[in-house]
């Protein structure tokens, strides 16, 4: 698996979790205190979040960091 495959799979997983919570990208970005375009970039696989960002994303989705990577 190359980096691109992993970032795309992670983005799809994050989108799945966000939608399961019934959140728009904008509402989710606001809850994370990130720009909506950053969330969009993660979900499209063009952005690679830092470890700190992963912690913030997991907290905003109310899941463990491990859950963010489930099924990848």
From TrEMBL:
Any Pfam family hit: HTH_3
GO CC annotation: cytosol
Keyword 4Fe-4S carried by entry: no
PROSITE patterns: HTH_CROC1
Keywords: DNA-binding, Transcription, Transcription regulation
Stretches assigned to the HTH cro/C1-type domain: 14-68
Gene Ontology terms, MF aspect: DNA binding; DNA-binding transcription factor activity
Domain of life: Bacteria
Name of the protein described by the UniProt record: DNA-binding transcriptional regulator, XRE-family HTH domain
Species assigned in the record: Methylophilus rhizosphaerae
């Amino acid at each position: 698996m190359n980096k691109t495959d992993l970032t795309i799979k992670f983005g799809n997983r994050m989108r799945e979790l966000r939608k399961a919570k019934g959140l728009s990208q904008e509402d989710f970005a606001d809850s994370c205190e990130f720009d909506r375009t950053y969330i969009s970039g993660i979900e499209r696989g063009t952005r690679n979040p830092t470890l700190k960002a992963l912690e913030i994303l997991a907290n905003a989705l109310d899941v463990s960091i491990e859950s963010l990577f489930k099924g990848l």
